[in-house]
Amino acid sequence: MGTELTSFDNDHINTHHVKQEIPIWLLAFTILLPTSFTMLATSATNVAIPYIAGFFGSTVDEANWVITTYMIANAILIPLTGWLENYMGRAMFLKVFISIFTVGSLICAFAPSLNVLVFGRIIQGIGGGPMMPISQAILIASFPFNKRGQAMALFAFAVMVFSILGPTFGGIIVDNFSWQWIYLVNIPVGIFSVILVHCNILENHNRQKPSKIDFVGLTALIIWLMSMEIVLDKGQQYGWFDTTWICVMTLFRHFLWCFLLFGSLSINFLL
Question: Which of 25, 54, 140, 163 is 20 to 30 A from 200, comparing alpha carbons?
């Protein structure tokens, strides 16, 4: 009986050891594939804005909210990446947010109105926001110390290439098919990415238990990011400080910036 238990334990240890021996290139591919496609979806959408406006019978300025809302949702989720990873675990975190991005792509592809498309882009932004910081963290942790420079070069290369290819890809799609295909191509990639993460990314069981989140600081950060993004994106359209609501949002943003600056001196501020 004792021999059987020892054999089972050895097999379990060996299986765990084999699972850890994942080729570094496969791990990098697993991480960079969804990250690259979030960048591709961002830059490809910029080209499709006139087509989206024409499809829904709206103005280009109204259709630009498709970009603005995505950037706002994207920016809000980035500061929460570390806390959410510690709370959920690395593999679960990736699977959840890749799935959210995929669901957002599905909503965008079949959106019956511009409002639904904007909602889908918010979902996409929530799913795509944490992908860049978490992919950098996993690459640095997974590569040997003497090859971390290569890891960051590989990350920068993937992000740069897909950002540059985005407008070209979007132009080919809208000229030969329809703008919906910009989002449809993300669906099989998202499903495949979830499978890759499940097979190749190990949970970090030694992660630190996250502290309680500071909801006051988080709310201030969200409002600050929203007001900053809206002012910078819509300022030129509405004549910058010739418009009252832009002046109000700018003053409000500076007030929140001061609050965040002095609040960051607190030990438990924000996270």
Answer: 163
